[in-house]
Structure formats: structure tokens, C-alpha cells
Specification:
2 domains; eight-stranded parallel β-barrel; single chain; 13 helices; 18% strand; alpha/beta; two-stranded antiparallel sheet; TIM Barrel
Length: 283
Amino acid sequence: MPTIGVQMMMLKNHVEDVGPHEVLRRLSESGFSAVEVSQIAMTPENVAEMVRARDELGIDFGALSAGMGGGPNESLLDDFDKIVADTKALGASRLRIGMMPYPAMASHEALLEFCGRAEKVSARLADEGITLYYHNHHVEFARRGGSTLLDVIRAEAPTMRLEIDVHWVQRGGRDPGRTLQQYAGLVDLVHLKDYRIGELDPSAFDALADGDRAGFMRSFTDVVQFAEVGEGNLDWAEIIDQSLDSGAEYLFIEQDQQYGRDPYDCLRTSRENLVALGYGHLI
């Protein structure tokens, strides 16, 4: 049955303070049973605590994260055996790349190099019973020569499946529901985060009064926020229903910034809104 869980990146500071087991215990008490792990140090001690949370609390590790050189997660190019061992230790079978290397954003040759390496790694992981996924941001919807970067990734790394982040799809100028439909059958993982238009900061109007129109326009164009599910402008009934129709098995709540709120409070708001929308049976 498809499950709504939590992207643990939101709680990385809490993990640093009290360890993963305590964080997972609190999530379990809050009604969540599935997580995706990213930007958490995969030390032997942390992995052991996560294994204990799986055994004692029934935590389902829907996916783990890795990189392809650089970034906050271990690299599949340098730490392949360890990443595979950690994935298996936690009973997971899905591994996701959170973002392409920065050079691939600037150079088509670097993008093709990343795709070639990812395809080879995907095949190696498949031999270990692990499926590799690529998580989008907005930059993948930039166009080069008539194709988006995501089109290129799909063509050049065809065995790598997709984790669709609906906020970043919206920020990239695409419709989340249609995008999920477009990639039906490839999307086992989905990120649920809302897209909110915030209020202009008062400093913007101070800049305008001082004749700094450029400063005002910077604030005017920088009002998009990451929001709790149900606290922004996305159509969640359409998105979740299409996610399920497209084959999603895990839908992870994620909020990159919380704007002063505690992440646990943000997750409670998202959970309450999802329950009110009729999706409590998936949590």
C-alpha cells in the first residue's frame, strides 16, 4: 500500500543534537512510520541507531540518498560498497540522487558525463537488488537545444527512475499533476511540499521609498516559499491522486525551509491537512 512519510533532511539538526533513534521515536509517536534519509551522517553509530529504530519502532526506510561526487551525501563513485551495505542493513531497496553535480548544470558535456556514470551505477545497484532514482529541482526544466535537462537525463540514463518533487516542478514552470502523469510508471517516489507566495518584506517598501527600485524588485520577485502541505497554492487532491495513479509507493513530506517554525510543528500541520483532505489512511 502506498505510504506517506517524512524526508529526514528536515530534521537533520535534531539528529545532530539527539541522534536518529530519538528523532525517529518522535516521528513514530507523531503517527509517521516511513522515512527517507538524506543529509544525515551515515556513521556506524547513526546507522546502528536507525537499525534499532527499524527493529524496535517498525520504521520503514523507504529510500536512502547518495551523490555522484560532492554534496551532503556519500558518493556512489567513492563509497559504493558502504552505501550498498547501509541500504541493505536498513532493509531498503531504493536509493536516490538528490541533485546532479553542479558542473552538469553549466555544461552539456558534464551533464552527459553525469548521465553515463549514473547509468553504470544504476546497473551495478540493480545487481544488488537496489533501484536508483533521480530527484528533480527546477533547473532540470531548463531547455537546451529543444530538450529539457530532465529529458536528457531520461534518455541518457534510462534505467534510473524518478523521484518527482512537486514544489520544484511548479517552480520550474511545469504543472505537477501533468508532470506526474507524463512520467507514470517511472515515479515510485514523490516529494510533497507546498508552494507558497509570501508577503513582501517591509524592507522592500523602504527600498522603494529610498529610490532603490532594483532592491524593491529583488524582494518582489523573491517571494516564493516552501510551505507545509495544504498551506500553499498547490492542488493536493489532484497531486496525490495522480501520484497514486502514476505508481507512487512512497510520498515523503519535505519542507526545505521552515521560516522559524520547529520542523516537528511543520510536519504536524502537514499531517493534519492531509488527514483533513482524506489521506490519513496513507500515513
